[in-house]
Amino acid sequence: MSVIPVSWYLVLSAILFGLGVVAFVFKRNVITIFMSIELMLNAVNLAFVAFARAHNQLDGLVFVFFVIVVAAAEAAVGLAIVIMLAQHRQSLSVERENLLKF
Amino acid sequence: MILPLIIFSLCALLAVGGAVALILSREPIHSALALILVMVSLAVLYLLLGAPFVAAVQIIVYAGAIMVLFVFVIMLLNMEAEERTDFSKIAKFVGVPLGLVLIVWAAYWLAHSPAASAMGTGAAMEPSSTRELSKQLFRQYLFPFEATSILILIALLGALVMARKEE
Q: In B, which residues are within 8 Å of A59 by CB distance?
């Protein structure tokens, strides 16, 4: 089981995180921006598990557990905000959310 | 011994492809399905890393609960395809290269960090037992665990208060 170096997992995690940042900056829809945040959290989770494996400690796995719980809470509140936004503005494009724009 | 390598390459390709599809697709529902693909392949990678409990939680909570919530909201709001704004030249000629630089730099930095180089391929990769994990979780991390349950409760109340119709 140990033929794959841990650094490969870390590289994959970095690539996924970078793609998440790019998606966060480039997407125009509030929900897709939200999904790119989830993508970044997933990438960080992969790095956590890889480090936990490499050091043979379980703390990393416990942290992944907490990250998933916080992501679930964040998704619940964030999607409630998105629903409210859709009811008030009839659009989910971030270009239209200019009420606070100077 | 070649099998883990094949599984890793397949899942890594699926994960990166799903992330790219998330960026490129214009329909939000396609982005959501691409993200589910990423999460499932990450769960397989967790199994490969010998963390079956985390893999199960990934499937149940992430792909099961959170993404169902996303898909549900997308269906509920009946969203149109993302409108293409006139991509400014700056975004095309500075943003894309900068994004690539970020990805390459982060990958290089993580692979060559002292923490990564010190550990090599990792010790014996036998699966971590869920029993040990739960001991850790309910002894050493008992207080954070209870704190997250309060956090979940607050999030639930907040979502209810925000999403309900105003009279």
A: 136
CATH number belonging to the domain at A6-89, selected among 3.40.50.1240, 2.40.50.140, 1.10.287.3510, 3.30.470.20: 1.10.287.3510
Q: What residues make up the domain containing B65?
A: 1-79
- B5/A94 Cα distance (integer angstroms): 41
Q: Looking at this predicted complex, what is its ipTM?
A: 0.90
Q: Is residue B114 part of a domain?
A: no
A2, A46, A73 member nearest B45 (Cβ): A46
pLDDT on residue B123: 47
Distance, in Å, from the CA atom of B22 to the CA atom of B84, rounded to the nearest integer, reads 15
- Rounded to two decimals, what is the model's pTM? 0.88
For the packed helices B142-163 and B130-139, what is the interaxial angle rounded to 10 degrees? 80
Distance from CA of A89 to the nearest CA of B (A): 12
CATH code for the domain in which residue B16 is found: 1.20.120.1200
Q: Which residue of chain A has the CA closest to B17?
A: A16
Domains: count for chain B: 2
Q: Which residue has the tokens 């002894």?
A: B139
| DSSP letter for each residue of B29-64 | HHHHHHHHHHHHHHHHHHHHTT-HHHHHHIIIIIII
Span A17-69, pLDDT tens digits: 999 999 998 888 889 999 999 999 999 999 999 988 888 888 889 999 999 99
Task: Report how far Cα B157 is from the mean position of its chain's Cα atoms.
Answer: 25
